[in-house]
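Name: ABC transporter substrate-binding protein
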Amino acid sequence: MKKKALLLMVSLLAFVGVLAGCGGAEKSASKEKVVIGYFPNINHVPAMVAKEKGYFQQQLGDGTTIEYKTFADGSAFMTALKTGDIDAGIVGPGPAMNNYSTGADVRIIAGASTGGTVVLAAKDSGIKKPEDFAGKVYITPAVGCTHDVQYETYLNEIGVTSERIGGTMKHLTGKPAQYSAMLQSGKVDVVVAPEPWAAQIELETGAEVVIPWNEVSWGETLPAAVLVASGKMIDESPEVIESIVSAHKEAVDFIIENPEESKEITIKDIKAETGQELSREVVDLAWERIGFTYEIDENAVQEFADSSYVLKFLKEQPNFTDLIDKQFISSETARR
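Structure predicted for ABC transporter substrate-binding protein:
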């Protein structure tokens, strides 16, 4: 009898051990900390709204700590994604494509916004049309960034190119928050600005819009910002990615349904991250040039990538078959 009791106890302990192992496997599938990256501009409002409303926390649960990091350009963002300093976040499609093409483990898992790229010239510069850009100095956030490719694609079609590929335009890079001062000081002739900086420059300096947001290449169709994660993160923690996408979708829906409150959240977040407080007039104008969506126009992405190759931002003809992963935005099980 004692022997049977001992065997029964051993069996029960083994069974408990199996259950514990299962529980441990479930726990390891979650993350104790998730870091979300984004830029402090209006194309990245979904991250600001999700942050303010606590959507990531709600989706990932109280056992997960949520942190946020902001970036001034796509290069710094992609470095952080590759090193694991961030787990997911919003970035322009340009940096995502460029890094993917050079072997980076990055996947686009949702759209975030469209539009928001505006090309302006100083009020008294004499620049009235795109053909006037030849020989001028222009500035974008980074070489090969989304706004840069949109701008250079548009100009390439009319025969105006940068010094980088044998043309006459001189290219500088810098933070969009500095563009207004650089334009007024004469350090640059043309700014290729994401919103809300374009609206701020236009209203505060009287700069003239030479190429409107909906006329620059793919102005209305190209994802201006996308939600990305690493392939490793998707493979190892798909439920975490699903939760991140679900929170992102909630944020996009909120923006569409509550534009006025979303504008207030934007003003507050940009001030906290950059020290600059945008006027409501600036935000209202910028908002007219932006669309928010978690869907992705794959054709526009491929056309943009092909142009990046033609303009020599990419060394090889791109193949983005595996870059865009739509399983999470199309999943019926995604929590909304």
